[in-house]
């Protein structure tokens, strides 16, 4: 079994914000895989399906970003999933809008959602797809990540969400290395 988690914040006021690119990517991936988000479990909205004969759980934690680890830990413990079968998709201010980066693990990079997950799982070796949102010029970090994309950034980010969904599908079917080889360094710019 594999679990893919898209990070974001619940509620319509956050739907189009920078911090919700993980949710946006998961919605697109679910559409591509013909999986519906039909139930609530593990403090999340979840969709279940099969890809290549393997069970897949797509999760959008409803705990708010900074408490994402609680939801992820609950699902990992319930299904007894190895951390190598877990993928997290989220926003990254250190990447410019339009860029994605795939990694097999690493630090939280200052991202509170990833920090929560690492803390709850007691491990940093969790595969991730990071979607660039850029850094704020004038706003505080909190205000910046909770703002919608301006049109010029959205024109760059939308294709990167599509690439991130494709990369997640490659991860599901072939693993982290092929996903990294095909999608790292790709930019919509």
Automatic annotation (TrEMBL):
Pfam family, one: Pept_tRNA_hydro
Reaction(s) the record says it catalyses: an N-acyl-L-alpha-aminoacyl-tRNA + H2O = an N-acyl-L-amino acid + a tRNA + H(+)
Positions marked as site (Stabilizes the basic form of H active site to accept a proton): 91
Subcellular location: Cytoplasm
Active site: 19
PROSITE patterns on file: PEPT_TRNA_HYDROL_1
Site, as annotated: Discriminates between blocked and unblocked aminoacyl-tRNA: 9
EC number(s) stated in the UniProt entry for this protein: 3.1.1.29
SUPFAM superfamilies xrefs: Peptidyl-tRNA hydrolase-like
Keywords: Cytoplasm, Hydrolase, RNA-binding, tRNA-binding
Complex and partners: Monomer.
Protein function: Hydrolyzes ribosome-free peptidyl-tRNAs (with 1 or more amino acids incorporated), which drop off the ribosome during protein synthesis, or as a result of ribosome stalling.
Name of protein: Peptidyl-tRNA hydrolase
Gene behind the chain: pth
